[in-house]
Write a structure and sequence with these properties.
With 228 residues, the chain is α+β, with helices and mostly antiparallel strands. It is built from eleven helices and four strands. Helix content is 60%, strand content 7%.
């Protein structure tokens, strides 16, 4: 399936395809998805952005900035970041529709941030991520180091609330809370109910709006390409 957003990112930014970072991303992504039954496997791209960021969206690609990836000390820390993005797909947080045919990349990403990101989504993705890491044979404590690194990055940029939390609601829970929640999830031996999450996501008002936008964009794109 064609992914217009990925095409635009690969056209506009430098993607690292050789060397240790690309090799680690491939190795870890493959290991995390080994034995997963449903769906096509995801790819991970290391992109030269100035931000310390990782995200996924429509299509089958995970994007991680080189600046973040180079701060992750080993495969375990990288695994948690990649597994978190895999988890968003597994939990049904990411619709299959791709309304990026008619919209530039920054508008698509803003739409996702507004309609799809929430503290509950991030918490559930963290929990499933650590399950995926453990199933792949990674040490959970070394995986959680990824969240420690994100805490240090946030503090470097003066985002104390992003680490310690505040009354102001944001798309992601405070990193200290995320670390504690992941450790508690591991200790409890609980499992995320993936099927329940998928069913719940299908009924979200924001999800239905985004699906309608995707349908309309796809229909208009097809109309524009049809012979006159």
């Amino acid at each position: 399936m064609r992914d217009d957003l990925r095409d635009e990112i690969e056209r506009e930014y430098v993607v690292e395809r050789k060397g240790w970072a690309a090799q680690r991303a491939l190795r870890v992504t493959d290991r995390l998805q080994r034995g997963l039954a449903a769906g096509e496997p995801l790819d991970t791209l290391i992109v030269w952005w100035s931000e310390h960021s990782a995200f996924t969206t429509f299509g089958r690609t995970i994007y991680i900035s080189r600046r973040l990836f180079e701060r992750l000390p080993d495969d375990e820390a990288a695994a948690f970041v990649i597994a978190h993005e895999i988890a968003h797909h597994r939990l049904g947080h990411i619709p299959k529709h791709i309304p990026s045919k008619l919209l530039p990349a920054h508008l698509v990403l803003a739409m996702i941030e507004r309609l799809l990101c929430s503290p509950r989504h991030e918490s559930d993705a963290d929990k499933l991520a650590i399950e995926l890491c453990i199933s792949a044979g990674y040490d959970p404590e070394r995986c959680i180091v990824a969240l420690d690194i994100l805490s240090l990055v946030s503090l470097d940029y003066g985002d104390v609330d992003g680490v310690l939390g505040s009354e102001q609601r944001r798309s992601h829970p405070a990193l200290n809370d995320r670390i504690a929640a992941v450790r508690a999830h591991v200790a409890s031996g609980a499992r995320v109910d993936v099927q329940r999450s998928i069913t719940s996501e299908r009924e979200r008002p924001g999800r239905r709006i985004l699906t309608a936008v995707g349908d309309a964009a796809s229909a208009l794109f097809a109309l524009r390409r049809s012979p006159r």
